[in-house]
Amino acid sequence: MRFATGTTVKDFDAYGAWLDVAADCGFAMLTTGDSQSLWADPYVSLAFAAQRTTTQRLGITVSNPMTRHPAVAASAASALQHLSGGRFVLGIASGDSALRNIGVRPGRVDETESYVAAVRALTRGEKATWQGADLVQRWKPGPTPVWMAAEGPRTLRAAGRSADGVVLSNSLTREAYERNLAHIAAGAAEAGRDLADLEIWCMANIVPAATEDDGIAVVRSVLAGTANHVFRFTTEGKGLPDTLVPKVEELKRRYDSTHHASPETAAHNAALVDELGLTRWLAAHSTVAGPIGHCVERLAEIEEAGIRNVIVAQFVPDQAAFMRTFADEIVGRLG
């Protein structure tokens, strides 16, 4: 298995120290997100990371088609490719907290797919079209892999048709992973491509703790955020049991996006998953928690299900200590 990890950036001195530990712990890729109202700009953050690191890939997981014109994103991506020596990866989704916090709607599936195609083309020095306008980048391109974050059947098929890779949430069970791969493969076939042409990465909360329940408790607000994102447009085709559909609808109605991805300030969101009886189901699809030995066993099961690339979320109080524990005591014990 390959492991990536990421953080949100609010203090660059702290981020520099985080990058040093992450690089030392052997993570293959270091990521940050794009939510301008909640943390620092990801292109600025990864420009900083490009100067601080030497070998790790650097990824935005993820941006969106609504806050940046594709020509702007492509120019920024090319700059990061030049600055990093070709280590940058750009992830795109329809948009969540970045848009909710400024009153902008998410991108539609067709918009997101067209945006991915436009950014990919521009970073390769090719012409592109966006909303009827012809685009070209007139300075040195920096070919950039563009991934899509996808959860539902339509978006998964779109990713299979047009993206270089796919970022999956709620996919840590065999059933969920195989269902999502089938949709990606179908989209790839529509474009004359093969599933093997795409990199597939799964998001995972990994939380060492005295017990599984203790670890899950740490990321309850993250479970709420993931559910709000994954099911925000529809619950259909995403493996959600019928008995949980009204509970997820209630969570979406009451979710507070101003504290998205902020466990330390999101007590309201954390309480929702317990109140609505969603905690266990959500955790099974997104979280590895508990004693070290149990985490190792769960990751081995995940690998056996076919998952090879995992982006480790760091919604834990001490990220540096977590990374060292993860590298030394968990990865070190995987076969």
UniProtKB/TrEMBL annotation:
<protein>
    <submittedName>
        <fullName>TIGR03842 family LLM class F420-dependent oxidoreductase</fullName>
    </submittedName>
</protein>
<dbReference type="Pfam" id="PF00296">
    <property type="entry name" value="Bac_luciferase"/>
</dbReference>
<keyword id="KW-0560">Oxidoreductase</keyword>
<feature type="domain" description="Luciferase-like">
    <location>
        <begin position="10"/>
        <end position="308"/>
    </location>
</feature>
<dbReference type="InterPro" id="IPR011251">
    <property type="entry name" value="Luciferase-like_dom"/>
</dbReference>
<dbReference type="InterPro" id="IPR050564">
    <property type="entry name" value="F420-G6PD/mer"/>
</dbReference>
<dbReference type="InterPro" id="IPR036661">
    <property type="entry name" value="Luciferase-like_sf"/>
</dbReference>
